[in-house]
Amino acid sequence: MSTLTGSPAAASGPQSPHPVSNVRSDGMSRRELLGHKLRSRIGRLTGWEFWPAWAVYAPLLPWLAWYALRSGHPLAATAINPAIPLGGLVGESKSQILALFPPDSVLHYALIAPGTPAQRLDAFHEFLRHTPEPYPVILKPDVGERGTAVRLISDAGAAARYFHDQTGPVIIQRYHPGPCEVGVFYIRLPGEASGRIFSVTAKRFPIVIGDGHSTLAELIWRHPRLRLQARTFLNRLGAGADTIPASGQPTRQAQSETVS
Question: Could you give the CA distance from residue 184 to residue 74 in angstroms, rounded to a whole number?
Answer without folding.
Answer: 28
